[in-house]
Every structure is written in C-alpha cells, then in structure tokens.
Specification:
- The protein is α/β, with parallel strands linked by helices.
- It is 33% helix and 19% strand.
- The chain has six helices and eight strands.
- The strands form three sheets. A four-stranded parallel beta sheet has the order 2-1-5-8, sandwiched between helices.
- A hairpin with a 2-residue loop joins strand 3 and strand 4.
- Helix 3 packs parallel to helix 4.
- The chain starts with a strand and ends with a helix.
C-alpha cells in the first residue's frame, strides 16, 4: 500500500484558486485517485472565498493586492492542513508552486509585480517545520518515487509464498 499524500485541490482540477480557476497538471489527478491522496485547499480552509483578491507573502505577513492583511486566514488554513496531516499520519504533500500558502522554495515577493523570491508559503513552511516533505507539481515523479509501493525483490516460490502469506496474515 502506498502512503497517503496531501495534494492541493487546484492541482486536481478543482476551481479553488484566487481567480476561481484550477491548475490541473497531467498525472496528478490520476495518481491521487489511484493512491487515495487527500485533497486540501488551505486558503479555503482558512475561510477565504473563491474567487478572492490575489495575495502574496511579505515577510511573516500575507497581504492581498488591495492592501488587506489576510495573514490570519492563511495561518488558520495552514494550521487546519497540518492538523489533518497529523491526524492521518501523513509524511508527504504535493502543493501548488509559488503560492503564498503552498509554495515551497520559491514564492512571489509581496510586491504584486510577478517577481519571485526564495521562500515558502505559510502552509508549506508549517508542514516542513513538522517534518512533512513538500513537493510541487513539477516534482511529481520524485514524489511518486518516495511514496509508491516497490515491487518485491525476493524470488517467489511455492514455499516462500506460503511463508510470505503466513507473515502477512492478519489475526
């Protein structure tokens, strides 16, 4: 059995982004369905509507393009996502790149000019601080290598097949 993974809902084709659109990527919805991944949208979990004014991380704050401080909603969404991850013993997440919630390694710089900078979204940062590995949509193959079941390397004969069945039997 493969590991459960948190996955950004927008990457599955759900229209939950700030602009009311989705950002589906080839292979992600199929992997999520096949392996039973858990869809999340931290911004919606934090109470933000869809659509909503675009926001960017500026230091420890998240500021909407109209100047509204939406940090509390982003933080609540991050906390709810982390709570779910802990509840379900999740060790991996596949999140939307560059997002002020989900971006990992590179995010928009807070000037609302399309400029990127090193950093993490609030949710990605909180997950990483709690030992959860975060991948983005461009790293699907790397994530799959970490979480999908490996083929057994032992030679299967009738004798060891019985031993394997005895070992794996649930009492």
């Amino acid at each position: 059995m493969s590991e459960r993974v948190l996955v950004s809902r927008c990457l599955l084709g759900c229209p939950c982004r700030y602009d009311g659109c989705a950002k589906a990527y080839e292979g992600i919805a199929e992997a999520a369905a096949k392996y039973g991944w858990i869809p999340v949208c931290p911004e919606q979990s934090g109470g933000l509507p869809t659509p909503r004014t675009p926001a960017e991380r500026l230091g420890d704050r998240v500021i909407a393009k109209d100047g509204t401080d939406v940090t509390d909603a982003f933080r609540l969404g991050a906390e709810e996502t982390l709570r779910l991850a802990k509840l379900m013993n999740i060790r991996f997440a596949l999140l939307k790149a560059k997002s002020p919630s989900c971006g990992c390694g590179t995010i928009y710089d807070g000037t609302h000019t399309g400029t990127l900078t090193d950093g993490n979204g609030l949710t990605a940062e909180m997950l990483l601080e709690n030992g959860i590995a975060v991948f983005n949509e461009h790293q699907l193959d790397e994530l799959l290598a970490c979480v999908t079941p490996k083929r057994p390397t032992e030679t299967v004969t009738f004798t060891n097949m019985c031993m394997i069945a005895d070992r794996d039997r649930v009492l």
